[in-house]
Amino acid sequence: MADNNSLDSYLLIYLEVQKDSQVILIVQILVAVFLYINLLLIITFFQKECFYTTTRYMLFAVTLLSDSLLLFLTDILVIFTQFLITIQVWLCVIICIVVLLYRTVTPVTLTAMTLERYVAVCMPLRHGELCSTRNTINCILIIHALSSVPSIFIFSTFFGSASLKLYTQYHICSVEIFMIHLWQQHLRSAIYQLQFLIMCIILVFCYVKIMKVAKAASGEDKQSSRKGLRTVALHGFQLLLCLIQLWCPFIEAALFHINFTLFYNIRYFNYIIFNLTPRCMSSLIYGFRDDKYFLALKHNVPFIFQCVKTNV
Question: What is the rounded average pLDDT of the residues 20-24?
Fold first, then answer.
């Protein structure tokens, strides 16, 4: 009887390991596909001068680079957590600062892209002046400054209370290990909620203004306004997924004490739907819906495959 119980235990452990491997494999395939698509789009961006001198394409490139870096780093953290791989805290600090920064860069950039569409549709005569290359570069710097606010609040408290010995210790890398006090979690949540509330207000304002212009326009102007309206709506859906991602840790923490299997499944579901999905939507909105960019992409794909074949 004891041997049968032991056999059943080993079988359950084996099945759990197999399940873990399957989930990790699915995540790796999705990440690889998204990174490959983003790589094609980034290469296409640098192929034509009209892309890296136009505001909306420059901001689009920022989201591509931000999403690619974030996908790569979060995927590494998922693998480390899954296989209980520990690293020194000082290295974890660097990784988490970058993750926190670029987790916010994409939604803030989306808001800037929405404002650019608002200026293009509602203020066409001032679009060239307001959306110059120099102003776009300044805007990108402001985006990174605003996106660094959450990490500054989180790590300033940690740096002030952590001892020097802690930085050489080995831990499983996660942002949660830097949350020493409960109020830090609430502060992080409040900062994110405030940021996204402001972004949602800007998004709704731009949507309403563009909708009014679309109703009053006619001919080509009406078609352009309606396309801008759909783009803003897609940005809104993307921002919604990013916002839901901020609530995921609270849901997962509650499930952890109720049912570990359910917690495990929900955690990977949240990662795929609310982390991976928003990061691939930028490719859909501008990479494949924009006629000029899509034609350039179709032109560059055979070139890329030819280069790969030559190198091999």
Answer: 71
